[in-house]
Design brief:
Blueprint: H1 2-14, E1 23-28, H2 37-40, H3 43-49, E2 53-61, E3 64-66, E4 76-81, H4 89-106, E5 111-117, H5 119-130, E6 140-144, H6 152-161, H7 174-179, H8 181-186, H9 195-199, E7 208-214, H10 228-231, E8 243-248, H11 256-270
Parallel strand pairs: 1-4, 1-5, 2-4, 5-6, 6-7, 7-8
Antiparallel strand pairs: 2-3
Length: 272
């Protein structure tokens, strides 16, 4: 599998157009995931091998974006972010806006792109919908295993939080359920009056939308967290027919396969 992955990278780099414009890729983690989850899963390692420069792990200190690495690629740079992943979607989207504004200043004229894993895809899409005129536009949004139409597991989490189980089952994350109650509500299956119902009916900006769908349910694999139909942005009312879809096998978790797909989709984006 390693040789096949390396061969795929070589082919993809050979396809890179000589006149490609510079790209920046912002990696958004999912619920309870640290920004380092992109690194621990091997995604950033494969980006490195595909000549993406690791721009660093950004954080906000004293209301300012801090980056101790500050490395920039001539053609391609990626960033990971410190995010309050238990906070409501709107809170995280506003924080993302601060990061994006700073990244835009560091990379004037370059194409800014977002890859969001799980709930991170919702955060990225909310930023795009709520973006102010002085905040950078997003050229491409790639979502991986994202519950665009919600997930019933968020409902289960909300019910556990309100049940006696929350006092006796700390091993399933009861404390986290308390802290992320509002976020879990944001991830409830779309229905009239809730957050996803509102978001999915907002005008979305012109951009390239890519839905990475991990389909299938079985005892040996598949995404048991988010159903396949919910991962497809074409099922979002405001985005019907606007998203490219890529179907993968595997579990809900990030893997090197996701990294190879990111490299491929960003190369395609450079040619558009």
């Amino acid at each position: 599998m390693k040789y096949r992955s390396f061969f795929t990278l070589v082919v993809l780099m050979w396809l890179l157009p000589l006149n490609a414009h510079a790209q920046v890729l912002v990696l958004l983690q999912g619920y309870l995931g640290p920004g380092s989850s992109w690194r621990a899963s091997g995604v950033t390692h494969i980006l490195d091998r595909a000549d993406w420069v690791d721009g660093g792990h950004l954080r906000i200190e004293n209301d300012k974006v801090v980056n101790y690495r500050k490395q920039f690629g001539q053609d391609r740079t990626f960033y990971t972010l410190k995010m309050p992943t238990e906070a409501p979607v709107m809170v995280q989207a506003k924080l993302l806006a601060k990061y994006m504004k700073d990244i835009g200043k560091q990379h004037p004229g370059e194409s800014l792109n977002i890859a969001g894993f799980s709930a991170g895809g919702i955060i990225g899409r909310t930023y795009m919908v709520m973006r102010k005129d002085d905040e950078p536009k997003v050229a491409t949004l790639i979502t991986i295993s994202t519950p665009h139409l919600g997930t019933h597991l968020a409902e289960v989490g909300s019910k556990i939080r309100r049940s006696p189980l929350s006092s006796f089952t700390p091993f399933i994350g009861a404390g986290s359920f308390d802290r992320s109650d509002a976020l879990l509500k944001d991830m409830h299956p779309e229905e009239y009056g809730n957050f996803l119902y509102w978001l999915n009916r907002q005008t979305h900006p012109r951009a390239r939308y890519v839905s990475v769908i991990k389909g299938g349910r079985s005892f040996i694999g598949g995404d048991f967290v988010v159903p396949a139909y919910s991962q497809n942005m074409n099922n979002v009312v405001a985005l019907w027919g606007m998203s490219t879809t890529v179907r993968l096998t595997g579990t809900h978790m990030l893997s090197h396969v996701d990294a190879l797909l990111l490299v491929q989709q960003m190369l395609i984006g450079q040619q558009i």
